[in-house]
Amino acid sequence: MTLSVQDLRVYYRTLRGEVKALDGVSFDVADGEILGLAGESGCGKTTLGKSLIRMDGRMKHVGGRVELDGENLPIGDTVKMNPFRFTEVSIIPQYSMSAMNPTRKIGRMVRELLDSRGVTVDLDELHRRLDLVELNRDVLGKYPLELSGGMKQRMVMVISTLLNPSLLIADEITSALDVSTQKAVVTTLKGFRELGFVKSMIFITHDISLTNQLADTIMVMYAGKLAEKAPADAIVNRSRHPYTQLLISSLPEVGVRYAEKKLTGIPGNPPSLLNPPVGCRFQDRCPLAFDKCREEPPAVEVEKDHFVACWKA
Amino acid sequence: MLKLQEVSKVFRVGAFGGKTMTAVDEVSFEVGRGEVVSLIGESGSGKSTIGKMVLRLMSANGGSITFDGDDISKLDKRAYYRKVQGVFQDPFSSYNPIFKADRVFSMIKEVYFPKEADRVWRDKVASALNDVRLDAGQVLNKFPHQLSGGQLQRLLIARALLLDIDFLVADEITSMLDASTRIDVLNLLADLKLRGLGVLFITHDLALGNYISERTVVLHQGRIVEYGPTAKVFETPEHSYTRKLLASVPQLHRKWEGV
Amino acid sequence: MTTTDPITAITAPDPDTPPISNRREALYFAVRNGKLLVGVGIVTIFLLIGIVGPFLVKSPPMEYVGQPMMPPDGEYWLGTTTFGQDVLAQFVYGVRSAFVVGVLAGGLAALIGMVIGFVAGYRGGLVDEILNMLTNVVLVIPTLAVLLIINAYLGVRSVGMQSLFIGLTSWPWVARAIRAQTFSLRSRDFVDLARLSGVRTGRIILREIAPNMSSYLFMTFILLFGSSILIASSLDFIGLGPTDGVSLGVMLNHANQWSALPLGLWWWFIPPGVAITAIVGALYVANVGLDEVFNPKLREL
């Protein structure tokens, strides 16, 4: 088991109180597994990704444990996390385009980064990986400004996997890209896993159709909690949670026309996470809600590897 | 209703404007009454530039844009905006963050309906909100950050409806919305055409364009590569670029080949 | 969806809780910011001295009222000059004129800088290039030298005149900074939306763009206020101060001219020196505090 998360709770401190962005989430990611983390804005997916590697100042680790390769990850302690970052857990940030220091040549930046981890640069390996993502070796002598968006993205992908981390977190890395580039990025990520550059991966996105192209397992989150987690194929074709079902039925696919088949969205908005409702967090928008939904539904394994947090599932 | 004829836009770039960059290159197409036309392209295709030129936020360097037969650059701006309006990509940037969101309504009241009694205006606003399926109590008197992206975009459509417009430029208006609310905004746009509005729907998402439009324009690097009825463009694309785009769209029930 | 900050994304649709407006939030942090409170406190004390003081002293500042070179005592709290003038009277009038210069010169510079910055930033193109050239020309003028020459030519100099000169020469950096900010705000969608609502350029600048920079504009004025006092004091000290009144700089100038330091008349030059340092210093400290209040990234949670 690469990653094991138990009842993780991470809150944001704000003036108005604590925002319960991540409120008791448990899941595992196996060796070699790509987990697609899907959900809408504010569901906690980015918070989850961040808390596994670096919390920002407003985030507070309230409860729960994270284990990576059997070892406890001190996620609440920024300093103690240092030896894990980049070597064990690595992230491709959402805005990797701006993650690079504009005043450093890329080669020098890579060297400094590795120095800070006490590793020397294996130039051959670096070159081999650049070739793999079809980046010219010259880029090491260039400034980030001289690279296009897609090239920077690939460069960041190479850098963040250079030390073969156990877990790679990719946070919305395709949302700013054109469709043709998206496909290339997804292909590259899959290649990284085949070649063993990373053991497991968490691919965070709001686009279920895209997740399905890459992920083995999809986890759908809603309002800081796990709604459903199952093999990708099961989520797409046999989802059991009403939220997942409604979400999938609201996606227009090429070929579906307004004139022929009118799709509908989900009425209402997600609840405020300052004072989330007691019980199921989807109850206000759920067409199937009944009295029992005022109690919190546990995530139950309804069939093998298929977890659903819903009383009706 | 709206007609573009060989419209071009060239930007001067670099120090002292020494270099030029052609963003839009002799683009021609039409949008009729009660019709949605999708303008599909990737970043840098010039699709948003075309939208800005139609809205007269930018001027064209060449060709002509006419609305009901009149060259739009010769029309009075206030009169033109009475008939043609736009909604943009980022709902949060479309609102001045320090004012309440419904200020977008009072702004057009000041300019276009200064004499209207407050009570009449309130009724009008309420009916426009009703048209976009928003509850007045939930959205009025709120700051933009207290509303969701979907609500904000609908408010902007309601604002356009208050002006009784004939034509709407919708520039990527759903790209920052969540899936569960995106489709409702899209349906709303499709309903507008039943009222006789013309809509220019600018998007990078082929599935969305396919969902609501009658005709589709595919742009690549400022040029039109394919233009025709939506069904035809999507089912029997002629240009290799269109085919490549279609193949790259992530589809829920179909896996990409070669990944 | 993808570009929103996680906090706003989470708290955004929240119909139940009352809003914390930006203004209330700023106030919340303002009353908890030590730097701001100390800075404002010191400036307020001097402001009160400048407003109330002149009504409480018995004699006009330049009048010879008592024994020369008297150290501070019960009657003359700050002693007297070599000519028997009341230092306290000079001091309170000096503080008042410092604030007058700050407000007039700082206000004028802020006004010119804002107009030029807004217009250049919003209009862009040729207008921007011309205004930018003007800004750069004024920027490279050796201000002090020009002020020296102009001041030397004018026979009678007043506080107002001095403020005018300072105001006319210290706006360029304001214009540049505001131009850059306007430039980035101009491309925001809400500005386009205002244009689509038929709102005219002037109103867009005043009602859409300027309010978004209000905290920045306020801080700009504070900085200009402080620097105007400093420039005025320097001019006064080298003998180019107002000929028809007294100021802190003029006091220093006289003290220097009549050898207050070698004669040990510390009460003559210490108070104005301390006042200038305290006012300008407090303004800068307050400005740093304001920066923390307005800029969430600098706040210590």
From TrEMBL, chain A:
Keywords: ATP-binding, Nucleotide-binding, Transport. Gene3D superfamilies: P-loop containing nucleotide triphosphate hydrolases. It holds the Pfam family ABC_tran. One of its GO terms (molecular function) is ATP binding. This is Dipeptide/oligopeptide/nickel ABC transporter ATP-binding protein. The keyword Nucleus does not apply. GO terms for biological process: peptide transport. Residues 3-248 form the ABC transporter domain. InterPro entries: AAA+_ATPase (IPR003593), ABC_transporter-like_ATP-bd (IPR003439), ABC_transporter-like_CS (IPR017871), Oligopep_ABC_C (IPR013563), P-loop_NTPase (IPR027417).
TrEMBL record, chain C:
Pfam families: BPD_transp_1. Residues 95-287 form the ABC transmembrane type-1 domain. It comes from Acrocarpospora phusangensis. Coiled coil: none annotated. InterPro entries: BP-dependent_transpt_permease, MetI-like, MetI-like_sf. CDD domains: TM_PBP2. The chain crosses the membrane at residues 36-57, 98-122, 134-154, 216-238, 265-290. This is Peptide ABC transporter permease. It comes from the Bacteria. Keywords: Cell membrane, Membrane, Transmembrane, Transmembrane helix, Transport. Belongs to the binding-protein-dependent transport system permease family. One of its GO terms (cellular component) is plasma membrane. PROSITE patterns: ABC_TM1 (PS50928). It is found in: Cell membrane.
